[in-house]
Specification:
CATH architecture of the largest domain in chain B: 3-Layer(aba) Sandwich
Mean pLDDT of chain B: 95
Number of domains of chain B: 2
CATH class of the largest domain in chain A: Alpha Beta
Number of strands of chain B: 12
Largest sheet of chain A: 6 strands, antiparallel, barrel
Largest interface: A-B, 19 and 19 residues
CATH superfamily of the largest domain in chain A: HUPs
Low-confidence stretches of chain B: none
Shape of chain A: globular
Oligomer: heterodimer
CATH topology of the largest domain in chain B: Aspartate Aminotransferase, domain 2
Shape of chain B: globular
Number of helices of chain B: 12
CATH architecture of the largest domain in chain A: 3-Layer(aba) Sandwich
Mean pLDDT of chain A: 88
Distance between the termini of chain A: 62 Å
Structural class of chain B: alpha/beta
CATH topology of the largest domain in chain A: Rossmann fold
Radius of gyration of chain A: 22 Å
Strand order of the largest sheet of chain A: 12-15-14-13-16-17
Helix content of chain A: 25-40%
Order of helices and strands of chain B: EHHEHEHEHEHEHEEHEEHEHHEH
Low-confidence stretches of chain A: 13-31
CATH class of the largest domain in chain B: Alpha Beta
Number of domains of chain A: 3
């Protein structure tokens, strides 16, 4: 038995406060101990995900995706991240590869991100990366290489509901839950997927990594958009790629009260950065008109609506009507509402009627529907047609 | 059984070279720069090795500068000449990065290649005609490391002498020593780089020929220090590595006439088999202009990085001949220079043989590559 595995066993015996084994086996019920490809970002979650699968007896191979070649200071793709992933794989005595999906990342994530901003939308690139890169391109690559199963270090669970359907469910650590960015996964994908740390709290993940001596144990969590550098920020990133246009700030009465440097960086509901007197002015961006380069500012009440249109909806299984809780940003507070299918009956586009008035969601943001802890579907926020 | 088809990346150290190294690491460990008996013994080893390398490379012993490998020899050649003489550097667009990067660093210019990967002599002539008086060094590799294409070095030398008479010619011969007699193939070049681990010596040792002669060549060291190598490369000699390199070079030189036709026949069977069994396979370059050891392809519709993993499952070690620092594969600058579109360049495979390659290696590759490519096309 390799040294690290002994350590893991010992830590499992020692760490009775967390039921490590059942936390993993919940997700392995229907799968034989076939080869598993683990996406290892070089972070602590995917490091521990790989370790747990090895301990479970799977044949595990790690892969790090090289997605972004430009400046980045978060947990994505740098040479040192690849080094970390490779070193962890070596410690676990598993093979490790690097796949260059840079072209696909540009095509499906970065270019649409830029185009969305130019079109006045507020995109969620993590969702698109999951949709097109991790759970499509990587899945196909895994299949071609003979891996039935793919695992990631996401904080989410895969649960079987009372009808035998697989559901993305919130991660055990509510503060780290990533079910929102995984909402697009369908039954076929979920059958091939494992989230080995989804049942663990982040502290426990770090503790386990520490006990195993993995070099990623204390590595900070990744923040924000991986391909945007903290120094230049969105302004520099977008400014290098598209012309940024100044916009007038006007009140609802049409009185001009200021200007912003770039309308592409203004998001519905934004208050800071409008230069309207800092923290004291309680006015928000309540309407953004790209055609006339005008941002209307006003009281928060003006953002409140009774209903929200959602397009490009994908259902985990079948379309859902009726009461749901709804999450409108990566770590947003769940809101209560009812899904009403529009009169056309076209399930890819729905209206959510809020129980209480809610702030309008910027077009382009992902909106995810839950029943209890489980994702039932999700789509993209749209303006009323 | 492992089928190693990556000899162009590195090749096993010859047993005779290992045998030569061991006592120099354990018993005869003197520093050749010293004065006592053990130092003198080490210096003798060094002088013997220098003579051997000179003979294999068609140079005089005093023209051999030992380095820590091919990359250092290439950097030393380009930078050594530019630092001493000023002026600019020219190189081919398909050089190894060990030449390309220092040339670029010094503001030099690269000359294109044809679709076959051979240097575009017309472009070189044009550039030399326009800027010849400013050029101090022209660097064109003897053999390309990805495609195996032998470059028209004699023509490069002729053009340089005629159009840039004050310039010197450097050739990176790192891939060549196993397959070409460098005492003739690079005889006209002023500077020649080789690397031991490509011909059965250890990693981390190589040499640069800096020819004396009628062309008075200013030359500055990269590494200043103890004055070793006539002041052209400071640093304590890697005596064991240098001795092993000389043994490997001599043995390779001696056996070349036997190995080249045998390996060429294996390579031809390999390449013909792949062209026959893989739909749409493109063999790069022109085989008649290649060294005996390299078969290099592009497979439309697949990614090399996936193909290599499937081949590894069949115990075949190969390469796409391109990589970047993170371990991910970027499309090769060589294929780009040859005009291959990016998606085709992503599907490259280099199979490189060595003197120890066998029919069994070829059989294994021919059994594994066609179904692997088919699988990736179907599912990738």
């Amino acid at each position: 038995m390799p040294y690290w595995l002994r350590c893991l066993r010992l830590s499992l015996d020692y760490g009775n406060e967390v039921d490590w084994m059942s936390s993993v086996s919940t997700n392995t019920g229907s799968v034989e101990k076939g080869p598993v490809l683990v996406a290892m970002s070089g972070g602590v979650d995917s490091s521990v995900a790989a370790a747990l699968l090895v301990e479970q007896g799977f044949e595990v191979v790690g892969v790090t995706l090289k997605l972004w070649g430009g400046a980045s200071d978060s947990g994505c793709c740098s040479v040192s991240d690849v080094d970390d992933a490779r070193r962890v794989a070596q410690q676990l005595d598993i093979d490790h590869h690097v796949f260059n999906f840079g072209d696909e990342f540009d095509q499906f994530v970065v270019d649409p991100y830029v185009a969305d901003h130019q079109a006045g939308r507020t995109p969620n690139p993590c969702v698109e990366c999951n949709r097109h890169i991790k759970f499509d391109k990587l899945f196909r690559r895994a299949d071609a290489l003979g891996f039935d199963t793919v695992a990631t270090g996401h904080h989410a669970r895969i649960e079987t509901d009372d009808q035998g359907l697989l559901r993305i469910s919130r991660g055990a650590d509510a503060a780290k839950d990533q079910s929102y960015v995984l909402h697009m996964l369908d039954q076929t994908q979920l059958r091939r997927l494992r989230f080995p740390v989804g049942h663990l709290n982040k502290d426990d993940v770090r503790a386990l990594a520490g006990r195993l001596g993995l070099r990623t144990a204390d590595k900070p969590d990744s923040q924000d958009v991986c391909f945007i550098h903290s120094v230049g920020g969105r302004q520099t990133f977008l400014g290098d790629r598209i012309p940024l246009r100044p916009a007038r700030l006007v009140t609802t009465e049409g009185e001009e009260v200021g200007v912003v440097e770039s309308i592409e960086l203004v998001t519905l509901g934004q208050r800071r950065g409008l230069n309207l007197g800092g923290d004291t002015d309680r006015r928000y961006a309540v309407d953004i008109d790209h055609a006339t380069a005008t941002v209307t500012v006003g009281e928060r009440d003006l953002l409140m609506v009774d209903e929200q249109w959602v397009e490009a909806v994908e259902w985990s299984e079948a379309p859902v009507d009726g009461p749901v809780t709804v999450q409108c940003s990566a770590h947003g507070r769940p809101r209560a509402g009812r899904i009403e299918s529009p009169e056309s009956g076209h399930a890819a586009s729905v209206v959510v009627r809020w129980d209480d008035p809610q702030q309008r969601v910027a077009a382009g943001q992902s909106i995810v529907f839950y029943q209890g802890e489980n994702v039932v579907g999700g789509g993209i926020a749209a303006n009323r047609p | 059984m492992v089928h190693y088809l990556d000899h162009a990346a590195t090749t096993p150290v010859r047993p005779s070279a290992v045998e030569a190294m061991v006592p120099l690491l354990t018993e005869q460990y003197g520093n050749p720069s010293g004065a006592h008996r053990m130092a003198r013994a080490a210096n003798r080893i060094l002088d013997d090795a220098r003579e051997t390398m000179a003979e294999v490379l068609g140079a005089k012993p005093g023209e051999i500068v030992f380095t820590a490998g091919g990359t250092e020899a290439d950097n030393l050649a380009v930078t050594g000449v530019l630092d001493a003489n000023g002026g600019t550097a020219l190189c081919s667009a398909v050089e190894h990065h060990a030449v390309l990067d220092p040339v670029e660093h010094h503001g030099g210019v690269s000359i294109g290649v044809g679709g076959d990967g051979r240097l575009d002599l017309a472009e070189l002539e044009e550039v030399l005609t326009q800027t010849g008086s400013e050029v101090s060094v022209v660097s064109v590799m003897t053999v390309n490391n990805e495609t195996g294409m032998i470059q028209p070095l004699d023509e490069v030398i002729e053009l340089t002498r005629r159009l840039a008479p004050r310039a010197v010619v450097h050739t990176d011969a790192v891939q060549a020593l196993c397959w070409l007699d460098l005492s003739t193939a690079t005889a006209g070049a002023d500077l020649v780089s080789v690397s031991a681990h490509k011909f059965g010596g250890p990693k981390g040792v190589g040499c640069l020929v800096v020819r004396d002669g009628e062309r008075s060549l200013g030359f500055e060291p990269l590494l200043r220090g103890g004055g070793q190598e006539r002041g052209r490369r400071g640093g304590t000699h890697n005596v064991a590595g240098i001795a092993a390199m000389a043994v490997a070079a001599a043995e390779t030189h001696r056996q070349r006439a036997v190995h080249v036709p045998r390996v060429a026949a294996l390579r031809d069977r390999l390449a013909d088999g792949i062209l026959a069994d893989v739909d749409g396979a493109i063999e790069t370059g022109t085989r008649a202009d290649k060294t005996a050891n390299i078969a290099h392809f592009c497979f439309p519709g697949i990614a090399s990085e996936a193909l290599l993993i499937l081949l590894e499952k069949s115990d075949i070690m190969a390469s796409a001949a391109s990589s970047c620092s993170s371990g991910a594969m970027d499309p090769s600058h060589v294929l780009a220079a040859m005009g291959y579109p990016r998606d085709l360049a992503f599907g490259s495979l280099r199979l490189s043989l060595g003197y120890g390659s066998t029919d069994a290696d070829v059989d294994a590759v021919l059994a594994a590559v066609p179904p692997a490519v088919a699988r990736l096309r179907e599912r990738g």
